[in-house]
Amino acid sequence: MFPAQSLAEEAKTRGWRVILLTDERGLRYTDGFPADRIVLLEAANPNVKGPVAKAQMAWAMFRGLRTARRALKQEKINAVVGFGGYPSAPGLFAARTLRLPFAVHEQNAVLGRVNRRAAPGADIVAHGFPRLDRLPEMKGQLVETGNPVRDAVRKAADIPYDAPRPSGVLRVLIFGGSQGAALFGRVFAPALASLPDELRARLEVTHQVPEADRETVAGVYEAAGIRAELAPFFTDLPERTAKSHYVISRSGASSVTEIAVIGRPALLVPLGIAMDDHQRINAETLVAAGAADLLLEAEATPEKAAAMLLPRLNDPDWLAGAANAARSVAPERAAEKLADLVAALLED
User: Fold this and answer.
1) Which residues belong to any copy of the Glycosyltransferase family 28 N-terminal domain (predicted)?
2) Proportion of the chain in helix, strand, coil states, percent, rounded to 5
3) Does 297 share its domain with 170?
4) Residue 163, domain extent
5) Binding site residue list for UDP-N-acetyl-alpha-D-glucosamine
6) DSSP state at residue 275
7) pLDDT digits (tens, 9 = 90+) for 117-141
8) Binding annotation
9) pLDDT tens column, 161-197
């Protein structure tokens, strides 16, 4: 949702009318989304098994397609941009059946299933990383725009990296998303708790954890004498990223892009079940630049994590250099580039 929001923010500066098509899941992330109208669609995960589940999925997608077609016609839409995931399917295929120009934007380094199916008929396939795997034959333009980021991320990027002093506070931010927060609590809280006393005494940790694990993880930090703020979700994550000295996170497209734009050193833990291993491939950009280390989920133990963290957190020169390296691979003007492509569609 964040790249879509970024494009919408840029679109509003150009005086465009913005209609957001999404499902109930996406609706939870629309706070602050600058849409003139939000249309709630039915959508379903196509990767279901069994005849009953498949029939229910097909019926839901048909109803979503019908709603999307109606909205596109009512609003006299001139162009459609899809950002992947099955909630985008009804809007993209409604555009195709109405012969409207449409683009897809792939945030990950591997083209997702919905975008993969839409790409052959798309006028534009834009992508966020230099590498894009699983691309089918297509008739339209292929353009690397980078991943658009929200206004909040661009503002956070204005905050320079303040490298920790040898005996000063060391702020660590840990967030793992809905599928990673539990693992991160089991691995990184005890990893940080096992670090040498003098390093532990400097730590200030901000850690996203599920509510069910909050008390347990808090107890680990408290027993180790580590100052820690825990919550299931942080609404001001860009600002917290900018205030941190070191970030531990998954390597979803938005996380990797925002870490690069804000410019912070990181330890990335790709989601092991991610489709086509796309999170590991996403991480390659920061790892190759020297801005991040990679810890595979299968190898993520407190002992392994502590062994990786100790030399990094004890080396302010590496931290500062990694922060600069992260900024060096940040996309520039991604939202503007994507909006320019959409504008070209409107002119054709």
Assistant:
1) 1-122
2) 50, 15, 35
3) yes
4) 154-328
5) 108, 150, 178, 279
6) G
7) 999 999 999 999 999 999 999 999 9
8) 108, 150, 178, 279
9) 999 998 899 999 999 876 557 999 999 999 999 999 9
